[in-house]
Amino acid sequence: MTPKENLLALLNKEQQDAFVNEWEPFGSVFDPLMGATLTAKPGEYVIDPWGVTVYWGKDEPGVMPIINEETKVLKDITQWREFVHAPKLSKMDLDWTAAKEQAEQIRSQGKLAMSLMATGLFEQSHYLMGFEDALMNLLLEPDDMHDFLDYLLEYRMEYAKLLVENLHPDILLHHDDWGSKTSLFMKADTWREFFKERYKKFFGYFRENGIIVMHHSDSYCEPIVQDMIDVGIDIWQGVLPTNDILGLQKEFGGKIVFMGGIDSVIDQKEYDEAQIRGEVRRACREYASGGSFIPSITYGAAGSIFPGVDDIVMDEIRKQSAVYFK
Asked: Do 28 and 116 contact (CB within 8 A), yes or no?
């Protein structure tokens, strides 16, 4: 089987002949919406199209907002209409030619064309108002937060429509972290009240158009896995081993695929190859029998921070496929 065939077999609950090896079945497309809205540059402070100051530090896996009294876009949720202005996607001069050519090249290689869409509803909220305010406003100002989140969803639905109508990727990689290493950022019922139906509408649009939904949340999300299935997530990417992955496989296997399980602590500048291979073997040993599993480092994109680490991970996954898929 090719990596793509192995992935589709996994999603369709059919027999595989090897582990899906991290991101092998996918090819990332750089589309003009990404270029216009994800403006961070490594090592630089950048003000993004929402007015948020972001920074991507050296040896860091992703971008972080820089929130203080000077940079905070939204200081009072009751005044969000005055201060929050979504990028005007309809007024952007977007050329899809290169993205379409890249997608076709990826497909010609027998892979799935994948589009990245960030930042999600919760992350965009705390980018604009700060992490503490975002959580507190869910409890103290629920009416304004509902209206605010509707506004964010409206923008994201416009983004989704442009992406599907112009490119129609095979798979969507969507980012929104919902928890820490050991807990959700909020009670499960709070997540359901503010995010579940909005994500059901958002992901539902992609599902209606035949697009696979992969959601990245390298978090503890055990309490809402059934909800993640309900909103249309096909692959939960970034599942940390602090989740009871084996228990989740027993309860939800066949309904959602768990991609992750390999602790990113192995990704170090002075890495230990034996430690890396041992962690990969542990993940494969513990989760292979449960099915619905893709072994992977839990980052939200392919590769590792430090050169060489991910090469070892993928090599060991190939070796473990020979053990668990006779």
From this structure: yes
